[in-house]
Amino acid sequence: MASKSGFERQEHEGERLKQEAQRLAMEKTPESFNRLIRLLSHPSMTVKIWAAAALEEHKNPKATPHLIRELKHKNQFVRMSAASALGESGDSRAIIQLVRTLDDQNEFVRNRAHESIVKIGKRLRAKYPKPSIEHPAFPFRLINPEKNPRAFGRLVKELADKRHGLKPIEWWKKHCATLVKIEAEIKKI
Questions:
Q1: What is the spatial distance between Cα 2 and Cα 76, in angstroms, rounded to a whole number?
Q2: Is 15 left (phi over 0), alpha (psi -120 to 50) or beta?
C-alpha cells in the first residue's frame, strides 16, 4: 500500500475538520463554540468557511471580533461566510465593519454584508423601538437599510469615519444633519 502524499493528507484533514465543524454547529455548547473559534483561525480556507457557517448556527455575539477579522480575508468565500455569520450574531458591533464591506470588490460578499446589516437592524429596531441618540440602534431609526441601503451605508460610514474622539451624544448631534444631505443626494440619482 502506497503512503498518502502531503496533498492527500491535507485534503483528508480538511474533510475531517469540515465534518467536525458541521457536528459542532449542532451541539451549541460552550466547548463546541470555543472549538469553532479555534477552527476559524485554521490556515485552510475550507475549514474557515465551514467554521464560520457553523458559528452562524450558534448565533453567539462573542464570535463577532473573530468574524470581523475574517471580513478582511483574501478569499471571497471566507468573507461571505463571515458576513453571514455576523448577521446571525445580531451584534451591533459588527455594523460598521459590515458597512465597510459594502465596498468589497466581490458582489456576493457585498450582498451578504447588506443582508446581515438588515438582519441586525431588524433585531435592533424590534428591541429598541425608540433608541436614544447615542445608542447603536439609532441609525436604524433614521434609515431602514432594507428600503434604502445606499443611504444607510453612507450615513453609517459618515458617522463612523468622523467620530474623532467626540462623545457619543455630541457625535450624533453633529452628524445627524448628514442624513438630510445624503437622502437629498440619493433622490437626485
A1: 36
A2: alpha
First to last CA, the chain: 67
Residue closest to 51 by CA, chosen among 90, 87, 77: 77
Q: How many CB atoms lie within 10 A of CB 36?
A: 26
52 CB neighbour count, 10 Å cutoff: 28
Q: Which residues of 57-95 are buried (b: 16+ CB within 10 A; e: fewer)?
A: bbebeebbebbbebbebeebbbbbbbbbbbbbbbbbebb
Compute the radius of gyration of the chain from its Cα atoms: 19
Cell numbers for 141, please give them: 431609526
At 111-143, the pLDDT tens digits run: 899 889 888 888 887 887 777 666 666 677 666
The ranges assigned to domains in the chain are 9-127, 130-189
* Residue 65 to residue 17: CA distance in whole angstroms: 22
* 17-35 tens-digit pLDDT: 888 888 888 888 999 999 9
Give the CATH number of domain 9-127; options: 3.40.50.300, 3.60.15.10, 1.25.10.10, 3.90.550.10: 1.25.10.10
DSSP 8-class letter at 93:
G
Half-sphere exposure of 187 (CA within 13 A, CB side): 6
Q: Against a cut of 0.85, is the pTM above it?
A: no
